[in-house]
Structures are given as C-alpha cells and as structure tokens.
C-alpha cells in the first residue's frame, strides 16, 4: 500500500504525462491541418479553422489518453476496515415524480440484500420524496406502508416528502442533513434508478472507515436492464470500455476524484460542512440554484482537504440509462445546462487545480459538439472565400502550381479516427488476451460486436452532435423547444416521435448535401459521412429504439454483456419485488398523511 | 424490560401501563430518543392489520410472544431521528471585493509595517 504522499506525487506525474501527451497529439494534428489548409492560400478563416480543429483535437486526445491510462495504470488495492462498522449509514433514495412501483421495488431489493448481512442493523433507509404530483405522492405513501410492513422495517425505513423541491436534489439531500444527518456517520446517495448489492455497500463503508480522510467514495455503476438496440449498445460499451475509462480517470484524478451524484458513499459531517452552496446571482440558466451539483460538491470536499475517490473495482453497483436517443438527449439537455452553468464557478475561491480541470472537462463535454459543427461550417465556407491560386508569383518565369497535400489530409483523417478507435481496439485486444471474451459472447462475437459498436457509434455521432448543439444553443438563449412525449415502458419510440424529435436534423443534413453539391463539390464526399446520418436521423433514431432489433442482437449473441449469461441477482430480486407489489396491489385504504412525512 | 432474544410468553411488568409499552417499543426499535408523546401518537395512528399475528387489544394488553410483539412494533411508522447538522451555504462566486479581501488585507499589513518608517524619515526641506 502506497503512503498518501507517494500517491499524490504519482497522480501528479500522471497528470503531467497526460497533459503532455494530449498537447503533443493536438500540436501534431493542428500542424498537419495547417499544412493542408494553406495549400490553397491562407486567410483569416483558416486561422479560425485551425483554432477550432486544435480545440476539438485536444478533446479527442484527452479522451484517448484517459482510456490509455486506464490500461497502463491498474488501481491500487484499497484497504478496508475489518469487523462491524463503527458508524451508522443512511441509505438515501431521493425521488421526484418517478414511477412508484419500480422505485420501491429497487429499494425493496436493496433492503433485502442489506438484510442478509450480519451488520444489517447499521443501515437505515430513507425515501426522500420531492414529488409535486399529489396522486404520485399518494401512491408513494401506499408503497411505503406496504414495504415497511413486508420488511418489518419500522424504525429503519423512513419516508419524507417536501411539498416544494427547493434546490432540487441537492436541496433534498441538504434537507435530510439539516433534519437527521447528525444521526449518521455516512450516507449512501442513490438515484431513483440505482441498485446496489448489500455486500458492496458494506465494503464501501469499510473502506471509508479505513481512511478517516476519505470524504466521498464513488462506485462505478454498470448500466443494466436495457432491451432496445441503442440500450444494448450503451450496455456493451460501458461494460467493455467503462471500467478502463474509469480506471484512467481514477489514475489521474487521484484524491480530487469524481462524484456522479449517486451510488456513492459520503461522510455526512464533511459533506454538511463543505458542500452547502449559495445560489448564483441572476436568473437561470446561468444563475439560481446550481443544477449539476455533484461535480461542484466533489470540488468543495476536496477544497476542504477531504479525499474524493473513485474506486472502479467496486462492483455490485448498477443503474439504468435512457433506452433511446431521444431520452438520452433529454437527459443531456439537463446536464448540458448544469455543466455550462459551471462556467460561473470555474474561478471559485480555493478550489484545487484539478477540480477546476474536472469542471472544465464537464463544460467541454458539451461545447465540443458546437466546436465540431462550427468547424464543419467554416470548412464548407472556406473554399468559397479562398483567394484564386497564383501561378505566377513574379519571382519565377515559370508557373508555380499549388502543392498537393492529399497525403497529409489523409494522414490527419486517419490520425483522428485512430484517436477514437485505437483505445477501444486496445481494450478489445486486452479482453481477448486476458481470456475474458467469454463474458462478451466469445472471441468471434466480441470482435463482431466491437465492429458493430464502432459502426453504429460513428453513424449516430452526427445525430448526438446536433442534439448537443441544440442544447447548448437553447441554454445560451434561455429556451427549451420541448420534447415529444412517448413514454413507453420498454423504451421504444414510435416513428412519429422520432420524426418529431429529429426532422430539423434531416433538413439540416439535406441542406448541407445540396449546398456542398452545388457550391463546394470538392468536399461533397467528405461531407457525406456526417450529412447522410442527419438526413436519415428519424429512421436511425426510430430503428435504434427498437426492442425487436435489441432482441435479435441478443439472440445472435451480439453486443453481449456479462450479465446476459449471468443475470444480476439484485436486478432479479427487484423484478420479483415489482411483480409481487403489482399482484398485491389493491385499492389501499389510505388513511391520512404519514406522521412526520411532510417536511 | 423484555428480552427479545428469548422465546415464550414474557408478560410485561404491568401490561396496562403505557410506560412499559413505550419502553418496549424504544428497546425493539433501538430508539431511545422517541418521547412518550410521540409514541402515544404513533400508537394512536397505527393500524393493527392482518399482516401481524397479534390483535390490537392483545398487543396493548401485553400479550403474545416477544417475537410476535416485536413484529407488531416493527410495522409501526416512526419519525426519523432528529439530529440536525448545520450546512452553511458557501459563496461560489463572491464579489471581487470579497474575493480580493485577503490580498487587500495583506497589502494593508505590508503598508502598516512600512508606514512608521516613512514617518520617521525627515522630510527634505529644500529652502533651508
């Protein structure tokens, strides 16, 4: 086990190495691009294009380096305290107008899993409801009573509802701390779609007890329970690449780690003292309560000297994710606003340097798309405004022809594609070499699944880019054009909803193709990989949301994940709890409100 | 006090005495912080349903096995422990005057150290 000082130094060395590697790759890409663009003359627009390319390439290089570092640097073995935990833990499930059945089924599964531990009495459970719809609140109170009676959990299971969700989830947690937080040493914060094994929760408590300076311990939630083609794509990518990306993140972040807002154990007193946030001056989207509070809370804990750590080896932590691209884009719209709001706290006093980098990274996750889009626009415009070639420069009696830079352009293209694909390819090779391919359907199916994943993500990337561009623009102008409502339980989308969400992309793609065909024909074929997916966006979004195609891929053993063959026990428990609650559902004789439930 | 580790009927000291019932509830739920008033309200609002093996009258009369009685108690809805933590709201975008306050204070301190020396330095009188 390395001492703390040595760990900090090695994290520092990794950070320097990663920044240097990303800067070198960016410089090489920018130099090559500058060589290509100056072949037909050099003007101000070229300077803009090179700058945009440099920023976008840096972002790609950064992502590639994180995966590479995940391969190079395995996580240190974490120490855990032995025996019974000294402190009590509150397991918090904040909810907000969610579907009651699945939420309480998840909590029932977690309670059952924790209940099997000899240390079960060290844990209490809280349902922190911010539900604003009274009918949903009534269902929640019924489900709470049923759960409490079924598990004989009086005194261990609590339900509290706020009539107004001031400060959203952060305000909900703060309300718990200001009411009951002092009764617990630790709190495990979940999301409405979180699932965690009791053993994992206990191991997290033990790790926290082994390190009194550890303020927050983040587990790596795996995505489960998705049946659509897009969902299976997400599951495959996060199962295969996710752990290595997380290891890479953990390797460079060190003690200023990450907090994803859920499936994390937090030291309550440290959190209460450090993480209270005053609303920002002004109105939303940039003012008011901080929306994406998790990143900021991690930064504030680190600011006060607490360790914030991501332990990618903590398995038994699960979450669900949007099953189709429209739901994914809806979630991204919220996160985009929250992350762009962070631009105002980037210079907050006393934050650690790497915390600022993490915040900046979150902002760039959304700004990268408009940067690529602007790059495309300027690249389409550049040939129109380029000066005509000068064959006789006055120094030579012979004509001087522009130097062709086709080889450099192709090298740059392959370099950028390699930045995207190479880390994934290395991870596939590592999985094959490590003998873990069986969990992904066997070597042949793993390679096929990898190719399908690369192909599909490349086709869908322009659509996600456009969704991000729209989100960023909406945040800047303070608008939200709304989303089609098509909430199906299985995550599939009707074609009408897909068209309604993406018709403007199809028009943009068609406009791009037409413009390029008539005015810049030399870029026509270069533009097609981006423009064609946009033209067919409604169809692609609809098809990837198909449960049938997801099922076909499952039967063929493609996009397979370890839990296809070996179902997650706690997820199965959740499903049986859900079935049980649905069969037992009866018009409940609801008495008055639960004592102490309303805050 | 009733031991819940043993089986068999163990009558309360005084079945009709609410005080011992309250003690029993506190003991089973390990919630010494629950006051008599709170417990009285909990009992008043509690619905003795079919899920528990003891009828309300039997429970209140102190009858039943320790496990059965503990089972009834564990179906009661009790309020969470009240133990508040202060959560001060930190200013993340303080005004410049506050952000540079430490710097200004340092400058003032430096000036303060230099000022007496400046006063001791005699002013040059040119016309003398």
UniProtKB/TrEMBL annotation, chain A:
It comes from the Bacteria. Pathway: Glycan metabolism; osmoregulated periplasmic glucan (OPG) biosynthesis. Signal peptide: none annotated. The chain crosses the membrane at residues 16-38, 50-73, 363-386, 406-426, 446-467, 523-545. It is found in: Cell inner membrane. Pfam families: Glyco_trans_2_3 (PF13632). It is a multi-pass membrane protein. The keyword Disulfide bond does not apply. Its main location: membrane. CDD domains: Glucan_BSP_MdoH. Gene3D superfamilies: Spore Coat Polysaccharide Biosynthesis Protein SpsA, Chain A (3.90.550.10). One of its GO terms (cellular component) is plasma membrane. Residues 188-420 form the Glycosyltransferase 2-like domain. GO terms for molecular function: hexosyltransferase activity. Keywords: Cell inner membrane, Cell membrane, Glycosyltransferase, Membrane, Transferase, Transmembrane, Transmembrane helix. InterPro entries: Glyco_trans_2-like, Glycosyltr_2/OpgH_subfam, Nucleotide-diphossugar_trans. The keyword Ligase does not apply. Belongs to the glycosyltransferase 2 family. OpgH subfamily. PANTHER family: CELLULOSE SYNTHASE CATALYTIC SUBUNIT A [UDP-FORMING], GLUCANS BIOSYNTHESIS GLUCOSYLTRANSFERASE H. This is Glucans biosynthesis glucosyltransferase H. It comes from Roseibium marinum.
UniProtKB/TrEMBL annotation, chain B:
The lineage of its organism: Bacteria, Pseudomonadati, Pseudomonadota, Alphaproteobacteria, Hyphomicrobiales. This is Uncharacterized protein. It comes from the Bacteria. It comes from Roseibium marinum.
